[in-house]
Structures are given as C-alpha cells and as structure tokens.
Amino acid sequence: MKKDFTVYVFRCILIISISLFHLASHSCKGPEKKIPLEKPNIIFVLADQWRAQATGYSGDPNLSGLSPNLDHFAAEGINFKNAISVCPVCTPYRASLLTGQYPTTTGMFLNDLHLPGEAVCMAEIFKGSGYQTAYIGKWHLDGMGRWANTPSDRRQGFDYWKGLECSHDYNELIYYTGNSDEKQLWEGYGPYAETADAIAYIQEYSNKKDPFLLVLAWGAPHFPHGSAPEELKSLFKPEQIILADNVSEEMKDRAMQESVGYYGHILALDKCIGDLKATLDRSGISENTIFVFTSDHGEMMGSQGIRPKQKQVPWAESVKVPFLLSYPALYGNKGIEVTTPINTPDILPTLLSLAGIPVPESIEGENMAEAILNPEANMKKAALIMGVSPFAGDFPEYRGIYTSRYAYVEDLNGPWLLYDNLDDPLQMNNLLDQPGHEELLEKMNASLQKELKQIGDEFKPRQYYIDYWGYNLNSGRHIDYSEGAEFQGPGLNKKRTEQSSEK
Known about the structure:
- With 503 residues, this protein is of the alpha/beta class.
- The chain has 15 helices and 17 strands.
- β15 and β16 form a beta hairpin.
- α6 runs parallel beside α8.
- The radius of gyration is 23 Å and the shape is globular.
C-alpha cells in the first residue's frame, strides 16, 4: 500500500514537472498542451483522389451542409490547410507516406512498383514501440499484380490485414486476409464494408493493453465516379453542379457529369468518418487517439482546362489534399488551423513525434508537430513537389514548391509557374507573365534549389531516373501491370541490372 502511494506521488510530481517544462518552452498562443499518460492509438484514414477544395469546411458550395462529420472534425480538430502530395499519384505517395522519404530517394516514382522489404516503414517502427498494427483497404505498393495477394512477409510490418493491391470496383471489391490466397468479397459498397471492419477492429483492440496503429485506405472517391451509392448520387444533378471559375468552357459538361458521382462518393465517406468517430466515443478511447483523415492526391476535374480524373500535375487541385488531425488528450477540441505546409514525407515523423517515438535517421521529412501550437514555427517551410516521370497525359517533368502563400514550379526549360495562392487561390494569374516579380522569383528559385539539394536531386530528364533504376516502361510510359507482365521495383530492377553487368 505504501509502495503504491509512493508511485502515485512520483507520477504526480513527474506530470507537474513535464507540464511546467512545456509551459516554459512553448510561449506561443493557442490551446494549452496536455501530456497524455499513455501511448496514443493511431487511426490513419486515407482516401484516394480527394482534392482539398472538395470539402464543405473549405467552402465547396456543392457540399454545403452535406458533409457534417468532416465539417465537425475540421471545427474541433487540427486543419492543415496547406497539405501537399509530394508526387500526386497513388504508389509514389503511399511509399513516401510509409517511409518518410522522397520518391527520388526510394525510386518509387511510378505506379505499380514493388516497395523493397528493406525499406524502414511506418508499421515496423510502431511495432518496435509496442504497437499492434492493422491495414484495411487499397495497398498499391506490392507491384506483383493488382489483383494478387500480398503475402504476410511483404506487408511492411502490418499484422492484421484485409487488403488488395489495387481495385476501384467498389461494388465488387475483393480482398485477401490472413495467410490465405483465397479471394474474399466485401459485401455491398466496398468503403462501407471496409469501414465496418475497421470499427470491429477498434472495438476489439480498444480493450487491449497495447496501443494500435490502424490504417484504413479507401479507394474512393477515385473514379469510376458513377459507382457511388445511388441514394447519394441522386442528391446531385449535373446542371446544378457549381464549378470553380478556373474550369475551362470545353471541360464544363464533362466536369459536371463526373462531379455527380465524385460528390456521391464523398458523402459516403463522410458517413464513414462519422461512424468511426462515434465508435471511438463509445469505446472510450477518443481522448487518447490520434485520428487523421487525408488523401493521396487530388483531382483536376476540368480546372486549368485539364480533364477530369487527371492528377500528377503541379496545380493545386492535383497536389493539395485535405488533412485533418485530432488528438484531444494533447490539443483539446477547440479547433486549430495550420497554414504552414505539411508534405507527404513529413507525416510519419510528425506521427512518431506525437506518439513519443524516436524518428529513424532514414526519414527525410520534417516533424511538423511544433507548427500546430506555434504559428511562427516552420514559417519558411517549403513543401517540395515533383513529377519525375509523368504518365497518363502529355505533361512535362517538373519540380516545385508550395509555401504557406506561394506556388513555384519549374520544368526542364526553367521557371514555369508562379502563383500567389492567397490572392489567387484558383491559380489563374501566372506571375511569371507579369513584370515586377523578379525578386519573388529569385527567392522562390533559391528555396526550390535548397530543397532539391537536401535530397540530392539534380532534376534531370525522366529517362535519367528510368535508366538509373533500370525500369522498363510500356508505350503508355508507365509500368505494365497487365497479366504476365514483368514485376518491377527499385530492389528488383537494380538487382537485375547488377546481375546483367556481372555477366
């Protein structure tokens, strides 16, 4: 009894000491930072092709009053208003998310590549700190066939598994689980079924001693847009869709047609967010759970005269994604907006920091936790974007940066785009076409070169990177994923190149 009382007193003294330390070291304005007593659970919800502009809380008139769960999340949580997709296409984003590294470092700059088992990944790091790990949904990192099973030794540290490499057949969505090669079929609309399984996982593991990391990766709202639930699609009529002013005249009809299903998927996923949040409340773990909602990249939907379904390009509709985070035990429920950009490689070190886990040296991203409470932190932060080898459209290679205000992009010929995103959020006024911005151009160019130098990228033509990693592309300039195609990836192709040179 005396021992228990001594331990209790010691814990109280420790908590008070830590609290005083944080009060002394954080003189910024904002909500008081609390110190959780236990490691937080982490739920990371990843959508596919959901642009930042397509949310009710960001002002999309088509979603006004129709996405209550995300709007409530944004009002009470942390809204990173300048979240950037480092290389806006599926596999490169996902590899960067799990490793905290840039696509030119990993070689994962094309879809349908195999992420090497040697990569130090998110789940492996959290497991090393006592976490249970789970993955549900779209993977797109195995590169061994889009409808093939990813066996347990290639799941990068995720133990609980109900996933598939890649499919967007939402009403006939298959998955694999456990150690079985047998295809399973999600019942009904895939994202609903995947969310129900995530809820079951949360309910079971909320009572366990160890914390958990759960990644739920939906395929929606990625096309086919017409496969959204009918009752939600029916809430939108093509002729009533309000398009952004930067949608070109020739793209308007197509954009309005595609938007009906796009918004239908979004409403379905908003419902899923609400169900997940309600489960946390019922399970009594809301306070000490880090909950993240984001997307891998956006969707042009006719903006800049670029067809719906297109990503990979450097405009805001492609590279800016929603990013909401809640952690009530640390930040309360008062709502915080962060304008400092957060890039894909920054997500892993930020989550590790919030969970009190050391960040491995292999990670290239920045810990952005400080920016949540301190508006002055990372003020000069520039989020690097890249199109190393674009496909699915005739677009040039590029490198660029997004700051809290500006966007600057170069192609191989030099400066290409320069926008003031505060005065011109639709990016309709390229400042490079106007005199008087020479000093800004020089500053942005210097910032871009600094970012490229930090990761050792000299920005060469696409063929340089293709040859360096030994990739073989098809006539569409991408990795062939058809049946019988050669499996490719940084480790696989480099090994083949080395073996050929030895002969």
